[in-house]
């Protein structure tokens, strides 16, 4: 711009994050000295070098380190039965976990990068400390990969794994007998998984295509588009400077002429008394991010809200319900109880297996009846899984009190109590931040924003670490909430993460959960910590565009999901405090429900119901 003779900032720079002097006059003079120009060139070179250095650090150190950690966790936590097989799903899990970690790490990186600052977004001002990392490209790539992993790769691997492992259903012949039926090969399982996944991709593609074609625009109120925000949004998402603004006056849209670059940059008033909005189209990447955020928020609001209450309560209860030393007589009685429960569950499992063979071989009147039958079977199976999981937990406690007394470490439960107190503090802070800063308009207090911003005055790294901790805590709360929901409601499968005992489908499920919820986590962070993250590119995506998309503005602008998170967390806290212990489902009721399905081929009760071995 100096070579073109355009006006530039004077040598005495204004403070960062300001666009005008205190008296309101423009900071753009006619010219400045060559020494100042040379100093700026040196500053830009330094900023560019810092950006290259950070990029190389990210690619050469951070990503390999994350991959190594994820592979190590996979090797140590996987079940021995999966140790030498299912290589591709393991690659998918490691890659998906790395993507989630890069998204979480990218949030404080975007804050530290500060590319949304007015001096960093354009070629003027004090940009000597701008790292110049292209965070928009960073977010585009990660969100696109997260969508591919969550919608394509992980579901395909789950379908293939569960199809191959289902010995009852996968080996059934048309007659319903599995005595002489050939087992499905690994290739057949992959083919069946890809056919099922093709249906999902086709459905999602049609929905996304229709929405992107018909609702591909966002409208930013002009009073919120003053200053640098409107110009930054327009440039970031491919809108030319000749794009027009629209105004709403009496329900009639009137197109204004093009606004000059300086007017957009400085937020010059072009208001003639009507309520104005900036109407712009979005790109494919932004709309995909918006749709994934919208879908992910339904899971995040439910399981994240439950997790905010369940995570601290369960950690604290692990201390209060810890194993205590028992006498010899008490240990013997405990052993007999475990044996009785184990025999009962084996009996229930055999009966459920027989029932599944019966009704999967029976004819059904239609699709709806089959769905109803499968739903009932899934609930029964989930109840059995929950009872088995709790029995295994009690067996581990018995081992610590009898055969493995030397491995009993009371400090583990003390550490859980301490972590529970810390987790309770995080949950309370999160709920207060959402209520005081997000739900109340205008905000009662900036609250945690002020806490994070004060680190900028003496040691910014602490603020970045604290911001990272708040982001990671939300992901942990989602996983905990999902597991707690499955333990109490039996509507979803249990996928516990256990050391040296985690099956591949549990790895895949939790990876998909993290990937889907990484979108709403990023949105909530930019909303709840708007003052701290306002000069980030991720805030431009979520706060400047996705919030105002026609298809989703009702949910995001009216803060529907934020209200849902607070409500679910409050109800869950009361419920879990009144009933903190996970009780096993009733084996007697599960026994009574077995063998009660209809044989639709004969129109009556199944013959298994008349000869119930129980």
Give the key terms.
614 residues
Q: Please report the distance between the alpha carbons of the first and last residues.
A: 86 Å
Number of helices: 20
The strand order across the widest sheet is 1-4-2-3
Oligomeric form of this entry?
single chain
Rg result: 29 Å
* Beta-strand content bin: under 5%
- Mean pLDDT value: 74
Instruction: Tally the beta strands.
Output: 6
Unreliable stretches (pLDDT < 50, length at least 5) are 1-47, 121-125, 168-183, 224-274, 597-614
Reading the helices and strands in chain order gives HHHHHHEHEEHEHHHHHHHHHHHEEH
Question: What structural class should be given to the helix and strand makeup?
Answer: mainly alpha
Global geometry: globular
Largest sheet: 4 strands, antiparallel
Proportion of helical residues: 55-70%
Structure, briefly:
With 614 residues, the chain is mostly helical.
Care to describe what's here?
There is one protein chain. The protein has about 625 residues and is mainly alpha-helical. It has 20 helices and six strands. A four-stranded antiparallel β-sheet has the order 1-4-2-3, with no helix packed on it. The protein has a two-stranded antiparallel sheet with strand order 5-6. The N terminus and C terminus are likely disordered.
What does the secondary structure layout of this molecule look like, with pairings?
Layout (H helix, E strand, L loop, with lengths): L33 H44 L9 H27 L4 H4 L13 H31 L1 H4 L15 H29 L3 E4 L7 H8 L9 E4 L2 E4 L5 H6 L8 E6 L3 H37 L7 H34 L5 H35 L8 H30 L8 H6 L6 H30 L14 H25 L8 H6 L10 H5 L2 H19 L8 H7 L4 E2 L4 E2 L1 H4 L4
Helix pairs in contact: 1-2, 2-4, 2-14, 2-15, 4-6, 4-9, 4-15, 9-12, 9-14, 9-15, 9-18, 10-11, 12-18, 14-15
